[in-house]
Amino acid sequence: MRPNVQSGPGIHVQDMSHNIGPRRILDRISLQLDAPRIGVIGRNGSGKSTLARLLAGLIEPSQGRVLIEGVDVCKDRRAAISTVGILFQNPEHQIIFPTVLEEICFGLRQLGRNKADARDAALATLTGFGKAHWLDASTETLSQGQKHLLCMMAVMAMRPRWLILDEPFAGLDIPTRMQLTRHLENCGVNLVHISHDPRDLAGYAQICWLDRGQIRAKGDADVLSAFETEMIHEGARDDLADLAG
Ligand SMILES: Nc1ncnc2c1ncn2[C@@H]1O[C@H](COP(=O)(O)OP(=O)(O)OP(=O)(O)O)[C@@H](O)[C@H]1O
């Protein structure tokens, strides 16, 4: 039986740093996260997307490690793909196959499911989202919102216990964003939602503030308020120095 998603040991980031070339992007991050809804807030360039990829095990940290439900997500890829999934801001970065069926089956095949089994599971997922008629659709004919939904279905078909959201709905219209968010919130997966916008994280129990590659604060909604206050203060300055890189 699958364990209750809320009772697992959660996410442990252990003294993790990440360098790109000579530059330190994330600096000695340690986190213990165990709420079903976790928000990570930070400015542009603070390291959010890098942290998202590290949490999903897609890149190897220069130092330290990430354990999710006890799985070292970088070292044990087979276990990691059934433990944690990720949705990117741009679905084009995720979709690689010409048809919806192939796209959803890919992850299931990586989990070791045979072809027929994977097809059945893909169809069951599509049916669950009311999209069984998409099975043989071409991925390139889907709208941006439909591509986001496909990515979500492909990840959910693998039934991960955790899902990392790297600002996946930033470019979508309000109804589409609300509908996709509602699906995610009702599907029983633990979320780590990464955003620069406090509105995305309203109501989240645990918030981490990432600032220039370090954890500036961790706590409840007060952290969001403190972030917002500082951002408004920063925005009032007539200066683009922070975007200098
Ligand atoms: N491949 C790369 N090569 C060099 N520098 C990089 C690379 N990827 C990221 N960086 C740098 O690392 C820092 C953190 O980038 P990251 O994309 O993780 O931040 P972010 O908080 O997600 O930013 P944004 O909100 O603007 O997307 C930035 O200064 C960025 O320029």
From TrEMBL:
SUPFAM superfamilies: P-loop containing nucleoside triphosphate hydrolases. InterPro entries: AAA+_ATPase, ABC_transporter-like_ATP-bd, ABC_transpr_CbiO/EcfA_su, ECF_ABC_transporter_ATP-bd, P-loop_NTPase. It comes from the Bacteria. Pfam families: ABC_tran. Keywords: ATP-binding, Nucleotide-binding, Transport. Residues 11-237 form the ABC transporter domain. GO terms for molecular function: ATP binding; ATP hydrolysis activity; ATPase-coupled transmembrane transporter activity. One of its GO terms (cellular component) is ATP-binding cassette (ABC) transporter complex. Belongs to the ABC transporter superfamily. This is ATP-binding cassette domain-containing protein.
